[in-house]
Amino acid sequence: xxDVKPGLIEExxxxxxxxxxxxxxxxxxxxxxxxELDDExxxxxxxxxxxxxxxxxxxxxxxGRKEGTRQLxxxxxxxPIAINPTxxxxxxxxxxxxxxxxxxxxxxxxxxxxxxxLSHTSVTFKNNQQAELPISTSSFENQYMxxxxxxxxxxxxIEETDRKYFYLHSGSHHLKASEMGLKxxxxxxxxxxxx
Length: 195
Prior knowledge:
The chain is of the alpha+beta class. It has one domain (about 5-160). The protein is built from 3 helices and 10 strands. It has helices at about 45-55, 60-75, 135-195; strands at about 5-10, 20-25, 30-35, 40-45, 80-85, 90-95, 105, 110-115, 120-125, 130-135. It is globular. One of its GO terms (biological process) is establishment of competence for transformation. It comes from Peribacillus glennii.
């Protein structure tokens, strides 16, 4: 990653600019090292706490998002999370989220990844930042593909719902708009005739 000295912040929610949330040790405590497109921060909360808080910020719970992942793609172990699907904020854990070494990675920002050795993967983000993650490339690829699947499935459901809503309401809205147009036109004619 860049040679930037991260600033300490109290409050943090995942944003569309967040690339990754990594654990970092401060004394005996686990903090979060947050990497964004153009900045880095240290938060006194663990990565899982940042993920949970971010789910709450967008009106749901981490448990609810996990259950949603299970319903949509049948994944329960190391489940990817749709923190905010409308802003393409899909994150996946590199290991079990409750383990202190778990790193959360944004699907949206990954450009490429490659094998370093049996237990390390190099990730290049779309802004050309690179990170070496302590996860085998096959595990990383598995997590990446699960998250792609979750995103596709969720977007598909959203589009399906939008289409149903459009078809249900387009006929009645069209009719009302036409009727209003006729009334407006008649009123306009009468109004001009009076002048």
